[in-house]
Amino acid sequence: MKGLRKAEDISVTGKTTLRELAREYEKSGGFVAKKLGTAVQIMEGMLSEKGCVRILSFPACIISTGTRGLIKEAVKRKMFDIVITTCGTLDHDFARVWKDYYHGSFDADDAELHRKGINRLGNIFIPNDSYGQIIEDRLQPILKDIYDSGKKELSTYELVWEIGKRIEGEKSAEGSIIHWAAKNRIPVIIPGITDGAFGTQLMMFMQKHRDFRVDVFRDEQLLFERLFSKVRSGALMIGGGISKHHVIWWNQFKGGLDYAVYVTTAPEWDGSLSGARMKEAVSWGKVKEKARYITVEGDATVLLPLILGPFL
């Protein structure tokens, strides 16, 4: 038909690269495959534009899986200028420097797991000594060292940098997001810093060190300085909640995101932020009317290698 693109058959072989596969998806016209191909095109524009402020946001759950390696690599390669995530990201990333997480099952007997001291996160098994105990054992001495160095009031991203410096040299530090964020001075902002094991440990430390403070307003000041201007900006947002909202909220003050790729499994009809498609953010001025944006529905652990992979 005149003016319409033809839906073409996908052609792949064992030698097809991820970038080539994304192009095949884009021209296929096929459901989520088409959206994924478009997402890669938007990412290409965002990552190649000089001066564009690039933001990555994601929830903690994927850091309990092998997807942590993709996020780590993106931070290591300085693909993004700012990371916004949740407290649990620090929990999982920090704990896995010393302890392992394990393959599990969605169908496991949760009461039995509880009796065995195993926490289930989807189909990932996390023993108690791989989570709460190791975080307490390792984090408290680090907090004391930070405090003794004279740093008693920090933003969340400054706290991440200080912790990252202190895990350098650990056997598995090279696999840590915290390590590379500190090394590359990439701000990792955690608006809900108290909502996890890290937050509990901070509260416990403050019981004996009343002049120690985490100042979240210093995080907001950084976002204000980076985004409250005429800069161009783009974001890859994985999942919804506070990390996604913090990205789009601060971008409204510069007229909205210029590039936006959002990956979600949430339905739109319940009115949640997680389910809200990128087009809804246009009505709020959080994404520009003429921005390049797409919402890709699906599991991030499946989709992220296809979205980030072509650029790694």
Descriptive notes:
The structure is a single chain. With 312 residues, the chain is an alpha/beta fold. It has a domain of 115 residues. The protein has 13 helices and eleven strands. The protein has a six-stranded parallel β-sheet, with helices on both faces. Helix 3 runs parallel beside helix 8.
What's the SSE pattern? HHEHEHEHEEHEHHEHEHEHEHEH
Radius of gyration: 20 Å
The major β-sheet equals:
6 strands, parallel
- Strand fraction: 15-25%
Q: How many beta-strand elements?
A: 11
Approximate helicity band:
40-55%
Mean pLDDT across all amino acids: 97
Bulk shape:
globular
Question: Which regions are unreliable across 5 or more consecutive residues at pLDDT < 50?
Answer: none
Briefly, what is this?
This protein has helices spanning 18-28, 31-48, 68-76, 87-95, 110-116, 132-148, 156-167, 177-184, 197-208, 216-227, 241-251, 278-284, 300-308, and strands spanning 53-57, 82-84, 102-103, 118-121, 124-127, 153-154, 188-189, 213-214, 233-238, 257-264, 287-297.
Question: Descriptors for this entry?
Answer:
six-stranded parallel sheet; 13 helices; single chain; alpha/beta; three-stranded antiparallel sheet; 312 residues
What is the topological layout?
Blueprint: H1 18-28, H2 31-48, E1 53-57, H3 68-76, E2 82-84, H4 87-95, E3 102-103, H5 110-116, E4 118-121, E5 124-127, H6 132-148, E6 153-154, H7 156-167, H8 177-184, E7 188-189, H9 197-208, E8 213-214, H10 216-227, E9 233-238, H11 241-251, E10 257-264, H12 278-284, E11 287-297, H13 300-308
Parallel strand pairs: 1-2, 1-9, 2-7, 6-8, 9-10, 10-11
Antiparallel strand pairs: 3-5, 4-5
Helix pairs in contact: 1-2, 2-13, 3-8, 6-9, 7-8
